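for the writeup, i need someone to sanity check this before i put it in the appendix. the sequnce is what the collaborator sent (i think, or maybe the updated version? ugh). structure was predicted straight from it, no edits. if anything looks off just tell me and ill rerun, i have time this weekend
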Amino acid sequence: MAKSPPSKPLVADDRPLRTRPRKPRDPSQPRLPLDPMPARIEPCLALLKPRPPIGPDWIYEIKWDGYRIAVHLNNGNVRILTRGGHDWTHRFPAIEADAKRLGVGSAILDGEAVVLDEQGRPNFGQLQQSLGGRGGKLNSGASIMFAFDLLYFDGHDIRSLELTARRYFLRSLLKDAQGSIRLSEDIEGDGREIFAAACAHGLEGVIAKYKDSPYRSGRLGEWVKVKCVQSDSFMIVGYEHSLSARAGIGSLLLAARKGNDWIYVGSVGTGFNERNAEYLRKTLDRIKRKTPPVEYGGRRKNLVWVQPTLIAEIEYRAWTHDGKLRHASYKGLREVQDNAGVYEIVPGP
């Protein structure tokens, strides 16, 4: 359980935190003890590791498979921003409505927007479908937010507090919440056992967080992610045309980034259904090019090369010795405004 901060607790009983909306700080009263509300905060990112850190200084959470979002609530006005800072408030109406019902004057919540499948597990493909696919215009009423951090609360910037204190306030704010904004529960215990249990339940992995860390933007190692199955973003650079495959796409050709170049990392031929295959074919055929954007030494024929503009989320098991994806499966296209980073190959020593 997260311990309360050393100062006087804001919660006197078991009821959720409730405050009155605060008016914006008057510039003529600069000493008023309120912190300006940030327009946007660069997110804290998790560092990928092969094994979870262990010890009493770490807590663990489920790694949610969706879109990273920040919910800004200020005197009844709500903004929902993506990781890249784009305003998607209109795309998550249920989350927006529940944010207005939190009963706090001002807050910034950090979390993940997901759609749960029949087994209660996050499903990235269903999330994409609910939004209408890449570039879609649909509003995802099925999406819910799992909040895992609180950065600003009731006129105070609390990023400098340790994680356990921020989680204490977040837990009180979201007490018993079962709507479209829910608490991402933290778990204490042996990180190896927690990770094994997450994998056994078909989840993507876990996030380990250092208990005493402040909230710092960037990928600094105070948050660590460990994946049961690898899932990363790759650039689509072409496709293999097939008369027998859905929409004529036998497989997608993928690339990773290495410095300023694109490096071919193999293909993916599973994970498509009739609907997304048709969309892919129409979209890819609009960005055809005559020459390959990557160095390709394969012998396959009927290849169609495209401009490197579409980013696909790919699930895979491992890498081959020659740098190709093993057992890859297509999960969906990333949104341009999602600011997903294409997998980067780090040069060797």
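The two ends are 43 Å apart (CA to CA). Residues 42-57+191-226 form one domain.
thx in advance!!
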